[in-house]
Amino acid sequence: MLFEGKFTQDGFENRVTKLYGIRYPIIQAGMLWASGWRLASAVSNAGGLGIIGAGSMYPDVLLEHIRKCKQATDKPFAVNLPMLYPQIDEHIAHIIAEKVPIVFTSAGNPKTWTGKLKEHGIIVTHVVSSAKFAKKCEDAGCDAVVAEGFEAGGHNGREETTTLCLIPAARQAIKIPLLAAGGIGTGRAMYAMMVLGAEGVQMGSRFVASHEASSHMAFKEAVIKANEGDTIVTLKQLTPVRLIKNKFYEQVQEAENNCASIEHMQQLLGRARAKNGMFEGNLEEGELEIGQVSSIIIEIKHAGDIVADVWEEFKATAKAPFTF
Question: What is the pTM of this model?
């Protein structure tokens, strides 16, 4: 076998499954407007690690989702916490009070909250887009790192490093457990990432197209209809984000072509643009964040079935990796 770990009767055993207490090294990303308690609990119940995406929730809403997730599953789950969130201290307080076992932090300095979370026995994983920042996570005391390549949907790294290049570089840079993200939606892709040095995978776009995702059905249907080349990274003057091309993207492109100021771009983005697109289903004026892997997602499925399908394909590929 070309990767560390071993198959067991119930799943797989390696550093990632032991760290999180899960059967399969399959993690569902904490996505804006898609990752509520229904999706997180369904993934956790299926043997992966479900994550509640706190970035699109007010503190009282996050508290509600944490409590409902605890009622829906007795398995480990996590909360994803973008560190740019304005009320992050309230989120942290709820996470600690509710004894959430695992937190995935992103979009900020891992030193800021890692120590406090670990003081309360919380496992901390940070999401990065470069090997350099993966090392900073290790130095900050994080328990694991997600290295996310340029193929990923949503907010993206300025380095524009693809997952294929990023994972080996991150593996060389750190000794703690490493998860791969960006462009992963199948068991074959999971196998490839494990061969390159990852010990598990985090998938976002594949779980957006699930019945349990809280995103709007119109957005889910747009995801499964997306073809190669339909997504693009834009808004590089502000915060790079990969989204489906639509009327909003065309307005952004026109503004960038006209060398618009950052202030103008901020006005164009406005407030709640992502909510308008992904949660409310406005496919023309909304921001539709999704990854390149959407071009091979052709069906909306139950989250548990997605976990099972990815795992079975991974096992089959591990047994005969060059059979097509």
Answer: 0.95
pLDDT at 256 > cutoff 90: no
How do the domains of the chain map onto residue ranges? 6-214+298-319, 217-294
Q: Calculate the CA dihedral of residues 154, 72, 297, 18 and round it to 10 degrees.
A: 80
Give the H/E segment covering residue 173: helix 163-173
Task: Give dist(CA 49, CA 23) in Å, integer.
Answer: 9
Class of the CATH-defined domain 6-214+298-319: alpha beta
Find all residues with CB under 8 Å of 110, minimum gap 6, and list them.
124, 126, 136, 137, 140, 142
Mean pLDDT of 246-250: 94
Rounded-to-integer distance, Cα 171 and Cα 9, Å: 28
Q: Which of 235, 242, 211 is nearest to 224 (CA)?
A: 211
Q: What is the DSSP letter of 167?
A: H
